[in-house]
Structure formats: structure tokens, C-alpha cells
Amino acid sequence: MESFIPPRGTYKGGPDGFEYNEAHDHYICPKGEIIPFKKVFSDTQTETLKKEYRGSTYQCRDCAMKASCLGKTAKEKKFSVTYFRAEYDLNIERVNSLQGRNMKGQRQSTVEPVFGTPTKFMGLRKINTIGIAQANIVMHLSAMAYNLKTGLPDRQEYLKFRQKLTKSGAKALAFLFNKIRGFQNLINLYLSHPEYS
Fold it and tell me: pLDDT tens, 93-127?
């Protein structure tokens, strides 16, 4: 499958400024020193495979970039890279392509609002029910609420009429005058009948 997923989470590329040599599987530092591949290990925190690259102490001993490259305590350059780095690099290239940018725009306008609106604006941070059947009911109700809220024509609408009310001082005064006129008419009607006078 061709993926168009931004590299987040457990992905870890090589250090900035280091050039990767795929034929010999080693990195070349900005000063031209070779940082060779040492071993494959499983990261205990992320539970993913990684490749470790490590230089030797004498390579970095007299380097002018030692303080910025190694830090305060390290004596040699050591870093780890995601085991499937080549596949990640191809995926990143697809994400940054014209097709990937078009797919991102389409996803942002169609899929992401459907998940973002209930969680951000409608309070559906988590489902407080037990079982998939009840969670399914909650999701159906939230979908109905979303359709009522958005009222977009390409989605099934449960509410066909939405009255747009504007808040203004003129409208409030008109409402007040109508109430006063109604009371005046009621008083006039009351006084016009002979049995009440």
C-alpha cells in the first residue's frame, strides 16, 4: 500500500548535517568522519526497531564542532535511526508531492472537521458507556447533532429549517413596542364593551 501519512510518533531520522551512504550503511559527519553502523536493537520505550550508529573517541577528540555536536559529557558521536528509515523517506517524499498535498487538503476539508467538531466544540471527548453497542448509539446521536449543527446539503439533514435571528437594539425596541400596542388594544377592547364599563 502507498501511504500518505506524515512521519510522527516513533519515526527518527538521522542527525542534521550528516550525509547517509546507503551502499555502505554509514553516515558522514560535516567534518568528513565516517560514523559506522553498529547494531540493531529494540527501543524499550517505543517498542520499535532501531539502528545504532556510533563513532570512536579519537574521531571527535580534536574536532572544532565537538561542543555543539556531542554535548557536555559524550566522548563519541552516537545516535539511533528508525530501522525502516528508507520506507519512511519514500513516504515523506509522497506526502510532500503534489498528490500528497492535494490529498491533505481534501482530508482537511472533509474528514478532519467531522472528528474535530464533536471533540472540540460539542464536548465529545470520551464516551461514558459500556460496550460497543451503546458506544455505537452515542456515535449515531453525535452524528445527528453534527448534521443538525452544520446543515450541509451533501449530508443527511434531520432539520430542514433554521431561523436566523439577529441581535440588535432596533429589533428589541420593535418587540417592546409591539407588546405595548398589544396591551393598549386589550385595554381598549375591555373598555369598549358596555358590560365591563
Answer: 999 999 999 988 888 888 887 778 788 777 788 88
For the stretch 52-70, pLDDT in tens is 998 888 888 778 777 778 7
DSSP 5-67: ----TT---PPTTPEEETTTTEEE-TTS-EEEEEEEEE-TTT--EEEEEE--HHHHTT-TTHH
Query: Position of cell 455505537?
Result: 136
Pairing of strands 78-82, 34-42: unpaired
- The rounded distance, in Å, linking the Cα atoms of 50 and 34 is 19
Residue 146, number of CB atoms within 10 A of its CB: 20
CB 70 within 8 A of CB 55: no
* Helix 85-95, helix 98-110: angle, nearest 10: 70
Specify the pTM: 0.52
Rounded to the nearest angstrom, the gap between the alpha carbon of residue 64 and the centroid of all alpha carbons in its chain is: 41
d(CA 77, CA 69): 8
End-to-end CA distance of the chain: 90
